[in-house]
Design a protein that fits this description.
The complex is a heterodimer of chains A (148) and B (149). With 148 residues, chain A is an alpha/beta fold. Chain A is 45% helix and 19% strand. Chain A has a single domain (25-147), classed as Transcription Regulator spoIIAA. Chain B has a single domain (3-137), classed as Heat Shock Protein 90 (2-Layer Sandwich). Helix content of chain B is 31%, strand content 26%. Classes of the chains: A alpha/beta (148), B alpha+beta (149). The A-B interface holds A 1-3, 24, 50, 52-54, 56, 60, 84-88, 90-92, 94-95, 113-115, 118-119, 122-123 and B 13-14, 16-17, 20, 24, 28, 31, 34-35, 37-39, 41-42, 45-46, 49, 52-53, 95-96, 104-106, 108-109, 111-112, 115-116. Chain B: This is Anti-sigma F factor. Chain B: Its EC number is 2.7.11.1.
Chain lengths: 148, 149
Amino acid sequence: MAESCRISTTFVEYKDSGKRPLNYGPKGGIHMNQITLTSGGIVIVRPAGELDHHTADSIKREVSRLIFGGKAAAVIWDLGSLQFMDSAGIGLILGRMRDLGAVEGGTVILNPSPTMKKMFELSGLGSHLLEGTVEDAIKRLGGILHGK
Amino acid sequence: MENEMTLSFAAISENEALARMTLTFFVAALDPTLEEISEYKTVISEAVTNAIIHGYDEDRSGIVRVHAALDGREVTVTISDEGGGIENVEEAMQPMYTSKPERERSGMGFTIMESFTDSLSVDSSNGGGTIVTFKKKFSPVQETCSSVG
């Protein structure tokens, strides 16, 4: 099964790095969440590992800080390397959409797994989904941001 | 019943991953598809998070209990707590309903659980704890690797 393949990869990577193999912390190990800000004011969030109620908080704080600091007007949620997400992920994205409401910004949810896709559709976020590259997402946001 | 397990743990959010992982290993021999296992993990995560956040209000002295039983390709999972309970189960199960909007809960937990299971029941009373039971049937294993030669 692919799941067990991933676990063995983890151990191999850790053997070389000397770090502990079961570090699920949101700020360490191989499950590093990446948050980057483009010069065009778009936050690109790449959560990794498992996104649940326990791990959502640190992402929330950082993305909200960028939006309310006036640095960001749109968020791309690149979920391609996320292994698991429950409704905490929905709450996280809906919450940031509320933050963006103040600046009339846009949201794109990129490459969710089939299970995540079902959850987003159930939550009324289907129109924000996109399969493609970050460039495709930026292109879509360009339309949203300029069309407002 | 072919196999069963019980797990109990303190009501702290780190243990959400513990519950998902343990219950995933419990059904691993059935060789579920990635999508089935991902849906199953999501349901467990929703129920355990509800017990920790809503049942015990993140009081770490609370205990969450999980029981799972396998019968053929069907698993029955019961997740229970002895916390505050749900005053109005019908209202709590409405899409987008949350009793804790300030905590950034989406209110989609029960809707997602219903969508990803074959049956779901919620037994709760105010102050009397909550018992969530769900059943999920895994599809038969498809023969994908035919012998060569």
